[in-house]
Amino acid sequence: MERIEHWHQQWAPLLDRVFGYWPGIVAFTGLVLAIVMMSHAVMNKRDARAAAAWTGLIWLVPFVGSFLYLLIGVNRIHRRAQQLVAEGLAQDADPYPVVQPRPADQHLHSMAELAGRLTGLPLLPGNNVTPLEAPDALAAMISAIDAASESVYLATYIFGNDAAGRPVIDALARAVQRGVQVRVLIDGMGSLYSFPTVMRRLRRRGVPATRFLHSIAPWRMPYMNLRNHRKVLVIDRAIGFTGGMNLRAGYISDPPTTRDLHMRVEGPVVGHLMRSFAADWQFSARETLPVEYIGPLVCGPVLARGISAGPDADIGKRRMMLLAAIGSAQHEIRIMTPYFVPDQTLLTALQLACLRGVRVELMLPGRTNIRMVHWAALHLLPWLVNDGCALYFSAPPFDHSKLMTVDGTWAMLGSGNWDARSLRLNFEFDVECYDPALADRLNRVMEQHRQAARRVSLAELQQQPYLKRLRNAVAFLLEPYL
């Protein structure tokens, strides 16, 4: 008791003095924290709008803005990506590969060479690419897993513990029982879309699985805003599946609540799918997998190349690919995407394409599952439609397909969207393809969707009530975060 009284007599005056100045101490701490966070943002953000947006949030919402920037605004992946390269996953890639063979259309040669320089990967002949609607794709994937004899590598953003995910788990478990090497990678954030998550079910069935950038402890989750959005399945290092489809029951419900397009890939470009999966698996599980393609060298007529993009060493690659494709177009650009909030450079490139006589056709869902993104898109679409873009809103169900074709020859399919998240924050995987027959098939898919879609005029966009237009403009201000 005497010791407590002595402590109180010794420290009470000092504590009283400190508490007397607490407003100043809090203000000074907030000022220092804001300066440090702002300095990091302006020094490290490549996009001036993102730097400005974070700076505004840091200063306008003291402490909270700094905490949010520290939690989701700092890219901590780039240094680890350099370590992965040093460990040998990409050492055999030529940084300036010769494009062999070249696309048949001469005006696409420069784009093919640009993609080679961006990715360090060659354009590969002899591939076959088969687009599949989601229910057919899910059935084909399960059948391929059941036929696997050597290996099954599966990466997905969302793996539902539902009517779509459980049959896949059953097929994976059967493969494990046959002695097949099975590896499953699920995004840490995407795994939370289902409760309970599939992780316990996978492990209970003996399926080796891990999550990408996941921790249940918030203070150990510095990557909350960086997500592995790739969807890749490789069977026996010879057959691949990739595209935009998650493993969710909405794709196969009756009636379906979501539409999507996935593709079965055969040929040497499957090796690019394996490289992408192997890098992500090594990052997450610290295990090195073989990346050599062992299937037939000639499976079809398609020239193809895998394009990995993300906030690591691959930052900016997808955006540059889109700019190159738009700039190379001479006759027609067709785009189907669920989320369309491009940055100013991409929007301007599309406007210039319209103004130089290229037909630009854009198909978006009439209603999306993320309303904020749809509102932001409604704010910028009038400028694009005013310059000649043909805009369509597809009918329900929600269309999650991601396609782009140029001049009836080039196509890109994969997991990437046209928004800030896919262009700067997500890890994405797409495949570029040079083949008129494939591009024609994809164009016919879009035409079928267009038959049930609604053409949207400039007048309709401009005649929205004032409060809705204000809502859209405010949502667009959040574009760097969407």
Explain this structure:
With 482 residues, the chain is an alpha/beta fold. It contains 17 helices and 17 strands. The chain folds into three domains: 73 residues; 214 residues, 2-Layer Sandwich (Endonuclease, Chain A); 165 residues, Endonuclease, Chain A. 44% of the residues lie in helices and 19% in strands. Helix 3 runs antiparallel to helix 4, helix 7 packs parallel to helix 8 and helix 13 packs across helix 17. The termini are far apart. About 4% of the residues have low confidence. It comes from Alcanivorax quisquiliarum. Its main location: membrane. This is Phospholipase D-like domain-containing protein.
> How many helical elements?
17
Task: From the alpha carbons, calculate the radius of gyration and give it in angstroms.
Answer: 25 Å
Instruction: Please state roughly what percent of the residues sit in beta strands, choosing from under 5%, 5-15%, 15-25%, 25-35%, 35-45% or over 45%.
Output: 15-25%
CATH architecture of the largest domain: 2-Layer Sandwich
Mean pLDDT: 87
- Net shape: globular
Q: Give the oligomeric state of the chains in this entry, treating copies of one chain as homo and distinct chains as hetero.
A: single chain
- Parts with pLDDT < 50 across at least 5 consecutive residues: 79-99
Kindly state the percentage of residues in helix: 40-55%
Q: Describe the largest sheet.
A: 15 strands, mixed
Total of domains: 3
**Which homologous superfamily in CATH is the superfamily of the largest domain?**
Endonuclease Chain A
CATH topology of the largest domain: Endonuclease, Chain A
DSSP strand count: 17
N-to-C terminal Cα separation, in Å?
A: 58 Å
